[in-house]
Predict the structure.
Amino acid sequence: MADIIIMASSATEKQINNVIKKVQGLGFDVNLSKGAEKTIIGIIGDTRGISDEIFKILPGVAQVISILKDYKLASREFHPQDTIIKVGGIEIGGNNFTIIAGPCSVENRKQLFKTAECIKKAGGSILRGGAFKPRTSPYSFLGLGFEGLKLLKEVKEFSGMPIITEVLSPEDIDGISEVADILQIGARNMFNYRLLQKVGRTKKPVFLKRAFSSTITEFLNCAEYILKEGNKDVILCERGIRSFDSTFTRNVLDLSAVPVLKKESHLPVFVDPSHGTGRRDLIIPMGKAAIAAGADGLMVEVHPKPEEALSDGFQSLTLEMFNRFMDEIKPVVKVMNKKLC
């Protein structure tokens, strides 16, 4: 069994290409990663039954490693360096720390523009806003749909901020991709494999939220579905899991998942303390804790008048609270040797 071929530092371009041809000749796809010191050739596919010796004897090969995990492309073994994702002029991952903020749902033009103006002024980088909303009850506000997308397009042109919005079905991806810079897969759709495969065929970064009942292995395997289709720009987001006690918080925010994911995977890891707690008074302290745990960014909900919000007002920061949130997290970001971008 062989999954990773590490080329010697002295390997020539011809030797690297010969190894790639050999892998492809056996019916496998290739993921090529060139670092400053070494070149790694990842073999994509089921390599059971393939002997390591086939590759070890090739000129220029230094080492052959087998990955036992199912999530090969997402694994740190497959891709030792942190993945950095570029969205507009923003770099997500590495030593960068990114704030995604905005209303749970796009409700109207005034609400969206006022929120975007506040977020940009305070130092937020990416604007979130739901045009299509998956809700527990079919009688709840389900979003403005494509009318909401038009408003997101307007506010994007107005603010210059990249947009992230949720995709609910494969059929909507093309239309949403015309506006969104990042496609969000919500917790309810983490196991929607057709949707994962379809966004994996796009060139848009994908923000994948952990399902509230999933294990970390399941979470990484769902990221693998996207990566396997060719989309290397995947962002993982911890947003709370369900527990036996829902008296005080909406979910249990599993911050231990952050260092675990950072160790297991090279993909950027975000935390959503809004959904993770369901309480606006916990967003700032849990946001700080997420930064200390090693997160690459936070996603928070912000609304000019949370008491009038059509969805999730109870877990949305006011504009004033968002300003305080930004002021309070900056020292923690600095202590963690990261920079706000």
Remarks:
- The domain at 4-65 is CATH 3.30.70.1140 (Alpha-Beta Plaits).
- The radius of gyration is 21 Å.
